[in-house]
Design goal:
- The strands form 2 sheets. Strands 3-2-1-4-5-7-6 form a 7-stranded mixed β-sheet, with helices on both faces. A two-stranded antiparallel ribbon has the order 8-9.
- By secondary structure, the protein is α/β, with parallel strands linked by helices.
- The protein contains 10 helices and 9 strands.
- Residues 85-99 and 199-208 have low confidence and may be disordered.
- It has helices spanning 16-23, 36-45, 61-68, 103-113, 132-144, 193-196, 200-204, 241-246, 260-268, 273-286; strands at residues 6-10, 27-33, 51-53, 77-80, 117-123, 147-155, 166-174, 229-232, 235-238.
- Strand 1 (6-10), helix 1 (16-23) and strand 2 (27-33) form a beta-alpha-beta unit.
- Helix 3 (61-68) crosses helix 4 (103-113).
Amino acid sequence: MVSNPTVISTFAGCGGSSLGYKLAGYKELLAVEWDDNAVETFRLNFPDVPVYHGDICKLSGDECMRLAGITKGELDVLDGSPPCQGFSTAGKRKYDDPRNSLFKEYARLLKELRPKVFVMENVTGMVKGYMKQTYLQIIATLRGCGYKAKGEVLNAMYYNVPQSRERVIIIGVREDLGIEPSHPKPQTRPLALREIAPDAKASRSQKINPWIPSTRPICTITKTPFDGIIQTSIGTRPLTDSELRRVSSFPVSFKFIGNLSNQWARIGNSVPPNLMRAIAEHIKANILAHAPQNPL
């Protein structure tokens, strides 16, 4: 088995996916992100990972490999979560939203880098209704890059995240490796916030804090702070900063820069680290462990 697989993260955001890969034992060679606050936050938490701070459209495959210190075909995993606002059921779903085409830049780098595996994440809106045609086009494009590709809807609440957050996860394996893509099976039952983040004061007194949700995961956290209202046994209230991190499986030690809106946007746009950890561990054990060492 590859002990420390390599990964490059595109559309890296503040590093939710990067943290998941790190926890799974991967070495991140490069992160690609354009948002200033996201880049500043990423660098604060991953000081040893090089960052390409700019427009992915202007990043060539050759430059990407130079920055990462690799050659074509050497990378284990190319990860990416192209912006999803044009697909999201939470907003105005527009077939021709220019953000929907950013996956083409991801596919371009995929074709130029030729990693063994790729992981692409997006919202479930891309597989619903008329947007499904776009999803089928995306799958066809990725397969056209020389990969066997398979997409599944995974809910983070089955992967040690106390939040019901469904995402489409597309995993691809380079055709010459002769391995079929697959996804991790559910690892846990749905968890409530209290089970992984009990209130400290309530814990010391051995009493149950009625203000903490107790029976089920909370709903999906989006980039809008207003959506952080949660139902408890005695009413509704907003999430605290600490709870916001924990319901998305970010550790309290993870540092954010800026105001509450900045923090919420970073977390709301991130893949929960524990979900990505499960995906990364699955790929490491079930795909990379069986891949030829020098297939190209």
